[in-house]
Amino acid sequence: DYDLETDVNKLRSRPVLDRPEEELGQYEAMCPELSHNFQELESESEEDKSLEDGTESLPSTPSHFIPSATSVKHPNYRWRKQSVTEMGPDPGEKDFKVPQQSWTKKEKCRWDPIDENRDAVKAAQDADSCEGEDPARSHTLTLRPLPKEAAWYKKMFNPERETSVSPSPGGRLESSDTVTNLLENHQGDIPFHSPRFYVAKAKCVKSIPDYKDLAFPDFWGHQPPPYSKPMLERKYGVQRNKVLDDVRRLIQPGDVIGRTVFDLDEPSHSSPGAPGSLTFFSKFESGNLRKAIQVREFEYDLIMNADVNSNQHHQWFYFEVRDMKLAVPYRFNIINCEKFNSQFNYGMQLVMYSVKEALQGRPRWLRAGHDICYYKNHYSCSVAAGGGVRGRCYYTLTFSIKFPHKDDVCYLAYHYPYTYSTMMSHLDILEQNRNPKKVYWRQQTLCQTLGGNPCPLLTITAMPDSKKRDDLEQFYNRPYVFLMARVHPGESNASWVMKGTLEFLVSSDPIADLLRKCFIFKIVPMLNPDGVINGSHRCSLSGDDLNRQWLTPSSQLHPTIYHTKGLLYYLRSIGRAPLVFCDYHGHSQKKNVFLYGCSIKETLWQAGCVVDTAVITEDVGYRTLPKILDKVAPAFVMNSCSFLVEKSRESTARVVVWKEMGVLRSYTMESTYCGCSHGLYKVSKPFK
């Protein structure tokens, strides 16, 4: 409670600009839906004629349509300096009407596996456009080598051919026979994923290490597992035995091999492929492994990279391992974790992807590992590494794994990876497979990141029924819902939740159709592309936690936050502040899904302050959405929600949007890394 904000003046809405008012005009171009004239809408007779001909009318405007700077400004364009209470119970709720619906027809889902020809054309177009914009942006990529066994590989891909095929593709990705064979054998049964789309987008990515390799799982894609798996039950005494093993190492150093087999800092000192050792690799998008040390024959100490331009935030890992033996339990110790506790102590497992399994038709990230423990170790941070502060302790995540195949190529990760290239290719596929007559979709670039990567901004709503005045007025007056995700790169679960959100919003589901007709969705699906690309856990390239920069973001150091906040300022200035604002996150120490919101009264009550209800009035509408979710969403838990405003959170998106934009329903949505402890998604261990 000591961290709770008790100053009522600081808790009240303070709509004060952090930039010159004239700067807001630039964000008009990011709201093309407010000035679009919908010339592409045809009369009913023309539409019927096109349907009879078997053709589908497409929007005449490009998908990246941005109105010119000379377009007429919105008549309400000004900065409104009202507080939440002065504006009434909720900005955007006034004159809010639900359009009438006809539920007689159900449209067939438009998603089908993308045919290879269109896929290849689109991928080539994307690659060419990337090269046209900036030749330095496009670069050659190589798919990581496949498993070694040539006989197995030949049987897998060329059962009727006698030509020899190398199991290790090299050179340019485009000309690789192996990649061609892979693409020919890809089943195309992974919804909303295409390897060719992925390659086209990955070529354009800018990274600090200048990645040249593609990780197989991101290229190939993955399917959900065919079954639900209960959380891991830890055997009694496992952690004690692990700690005793660590002590035994110190008192019997002669038993320790101590050989470095992978080192990003000094590659010449590594001995990859040394007899009797695993081979590690992590120089690919979102990868993170700095060093691997062989301790015993089947045990390795692993060290993670800190975030770029930082000396902390060691938590996210994602790396490749190969040359394993079959049915042997390998022990891995990640020895420089920083969080004081983890769901790894309470049933969480890491995830593993097997290339051999994928090529046999089972491309899946699966929960893996046993004897998993997370505990404080004997290592501590030096004064230099700790920024002059000595004594910060490290923690060990230890787990054992039996790999499913001999000499396989496997990938291990903290959580299901979701790369920047995955997101960009996903957006292209969604755009191509939506129904343009039903779904209004605009993808724009919010800004360039510090690393030179575009940060996409999406607008999704329903197309107006016609060009009639009433239909267009209903379209222009729809309230806004503002969604964003992945400000913290290591919280990949936030991207998976966003992926599901996007797929639902453009679907033919009647509820999705109703939502589109009721709201305009502004979405920033990845706020920290640079952090995701470079395998960071918490920060951007500036070394800053971007969710602590919302009070005074820098346009140079924190461009995605600066321009997202600018867009929200602009919406408020024209009287269109969002009805709902939600920032998607992942939570490492709790189960289920829950929301954090903002309440003056609940904060003061929790802090033990006397609240004069005659002076302090508050609309309790901020509780409506969590209560609805608690009733309809099986993974959601109302009891885990909190509406307290803490001093240490005053610079987060949730609090700043609540205070400065006057958005009553401003939330952070937290999704667990682990699983659900109740309800439909709780998986119990089967009885023997």
UniProtKB/TrEMBL annotation:
GO molecular function ontology, one term from the record: metallocarboxypeptidase activity
GO biological process: proteolysis
Cofactor(s) in the UniProt record: Zn(2+)
Record's compositionally biased regions (Acidic residues): 41-55
Main location: cytoplasm
Annotated segments matching region Disordered: 1-72
Catalysed reaction equations from the record: (L-glutamyl)(n+1)-gamma-L-glutamyl-L-glutamyl-[protein] + H2O = (L-glutamyl)(n)-gamma-L-glutamyl-L-glutamyl-[protein] + L-glutamate
Keyword Transcription appears in the UniProt entry: no
SUPFAM superfamilies, alphabetized: Zn-dependent exopeptidases
Catalytic site: E670
Gene Ontology cellular component terms for the protein in this record: cytosol
Bias type Basic and acidic residues, positions: 7-19
Keywords, in A-Z order: Carboxypeptidase, Hydrolase, Metal-binding, Metalloprotease, Protease, Zinc
UniProt xrefs under InterPro entries: Cytosolic_carboxypeptidase, Pepdidase_M14_N, Peptidase_M14
Domain of life, per lineage: Eukaryota
Location of the Peptidase M14 domain: 416-688
Chain intervals with Polar residues compositional bias: 57-72
Subcellular compartments: Cytoplasm, Cytosol
Family recorded in the similarity comment: Belongs to the peptidase M14 family.
The name this protein goes by in its record: CBPC4 carboxypeptidase
Organism: Himantopus himantopus (Black-winged stilt)
The organism's taxonomic lineage, starting at the top: Eukaryota, Metazoa, Chordata, Craniata, Vertebrata
